[in-house]
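Handoff note, outgoing to incoming analyst
You'll be picking up this chain. Sequence as last confirmed:
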Amino acid sequence: MSKVQITDTPSAGRRQFESLAQAAQRTGLSARTLRRRIAEGRLPAYRNGPRILRVDPEDVDQLMIRVPAVRSEPRFHITHP
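Most recent structure output, in case you need it:
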């Protein structure tokens, strides 16, 4: 009888999924916000049965858009006598 080894590493080329709760915790977004993005068509989701809903972490990460830092001039200038 041979033993089967189970590892936590993802298989090469195999898509990984996470629950909305996991995605929400990882990104700091609420599960409700993620559901809204799915309803808007901005976040692809995958269903397995009537209740199980999963998202690809890469798709969730693409929702996060980096905001460029803007260097602003000081609002006032302090002069010393």
